[in-house]
Amino acid sequence: MRSASRGAARVHDVRRLRDMIRAAVQGGRYPDGHLPAEAELMAAHGASRGTVREALSLLRAEGLIERTQGIGTHAVVRPVDERLIAAHGATSPDERSLLNRRTRPWMLDRSEIPAPAAVADRLGVPAGTPCLRLEYVALYEEEPIWLATNYALFPEAGRLRDCPFVTDWYALMADAGVEFGQSEFVIGAEPADPLIGDILRIPVGAPVLVTEQTIADPAGRLFDLAFIHTRADRFRFVSRGLRLPGSEA
Question: Which sequence ranges form a coiled-coil region, renumbered to this chain (predicted)?
């Protein structure tokens, strides 16, 4: 029983250490991308060599780090932190934001279709209502970051169809003169299947953020529904809430 308890405790120690190292890597604690040596990690976290090695192995399996004999451990990628409010398009993006006209679209589809029943129901229109299906992969430095499939209703769809799509979605809306009043996200996560893995160039099973977005005009009428698959290793949402005095339930 004691042996089993020690084994369970070790598993949790590995998990906790993995989470702390991941946070340090993704948070930019190692600007040059090189992680401390095993001995330094052991001393910093009060962990055994075996625990450190297992935690690093898990991070390597995630694709976050690489380990090279004689060189050490280094981060493969560091995700961009995106303020959630900027991801909604509700405020100007930061300089480092990928939504600051820093991506380019690889267009997969830009065609008028009858709105599928599920899309029509979500947007509150009859099934078969004409809409624009605009599907693209956002590329940053020629690396795919997210796949987005948008279903836009007319009249906004006409302006989005006719306007050159040069950088990101919000830039397209601005360039097309499409105004919106609100955006809503429903965010989940799932492992990449073979189709998503092939498009985003990530291993099958890699974590993917899955977002369903609706966009409404200034009067509150929904005109766009999007399904977005984003590489979790390249993109993180940041949100901050302020609790006001007297807001207790």
Answer: none
- pLDDT (tens digit, 9 = 90+) per residue, 143-179? 999 999 999 999 999 999 999 999 999 999 999 999 9
- CA–CA dist 201, 212 (Å, integer): 21
Q: 71-103 pLDDT, tens per residue?
A: 889 888 777 888 888 888 888 888 878 888 899
Stated pTM of the model: 0.83
For residues 93 and 249, the answer to whether their CB atoms sit within 8 Å is no
CATH fit for domain 2-75, picks 1.10.150.120, 3.30.70.860, 1.10.10.10, 1.20.1050.10:
1.10.10.10
Q: Which helix (H) or strand (E) holds 175?
A: helix 169-176
Rounded Cα distance between 164 and 104, Å, is 12
Q: How far apart are CA 229 and CA 196, in angstroms?
A: 8
At 3, phi and psi to the nearest 5?
A: -60, -40
Query: How many contiguous H segments (helices) and E segments (strands) does the chain have?
Result: 8, 10
Chain position carrying tokens 């409010």: 85
